[in-house]
């Protein structure tokens, strides 16, 4: 069983960290950098980053995972694998509170993704 307040706190701390990283990345790209990185909703940030060619960045991926984890927490689905819907291993969630897959499904995903990359080249 997951403690809602502990998870919420971890996700909030991660959001602060990612917003600070975002500001450092975009401060020279857009005049709205401070407002975007500090006061915009996660959804607005996620919608904006592709416009400034950052949709392929690790930061974009982390923000997407954070948004998904926050939504799952609100819905009472936090900690369930997005593929098989079984519990994600606690050690995986402790390492990354935004983890979306159990170890087994993550391995399957990585194997399928590697195959897709090979087929595209």
Description:
This protein is mainly alpha-helical. Helix content is 65%, strand content 0%. The protein has helices at residues 4-26, 33-39, 42-48, 58-75, 90-95, 103-120. The relative contact order is 0.11.
What is the secondary structure topology, with strand pairs?
Elements: H1 4-26, H2 33-39, H3 42-48, H4 58-75, H5 90-95, H6 103-120
List keywords for this structure.
single chain, 121 residues, mainly alpha
Count of DSSP H/I helices:
6
General form: globular
Note the gap between the termini. 44 Å
Low-confidence residue ranges: none
Q: Concise description?
A:
Helix content is 65%, strand content 0%.
């Amino acid at each position: 069983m997951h403690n809602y307040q502990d998870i919420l706190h971890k996700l909030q701390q991660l959001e602060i960290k990612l917003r600070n990283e975002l500001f450092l990345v975009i401060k020279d790209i857009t005049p709205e950098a401070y407002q975007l990185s500090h006061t915009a909703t996660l959804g607005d940030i996620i919608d904006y980053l592709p416009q400034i060619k950052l949709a392929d960045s690790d930061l974009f991926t982390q923000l997407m995972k954070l948004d998904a984890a926050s939504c799952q927490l609100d819905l009472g689905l936090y900690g369930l694998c997005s593929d098989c819907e079984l519990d994600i291993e606690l050690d995986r969630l402790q390492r990354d509170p935004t983890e979306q897959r159990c170890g087994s499904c993550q391995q399957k995903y990585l194997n399928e993704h590697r195959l897709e990359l090979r087929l595209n080249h």
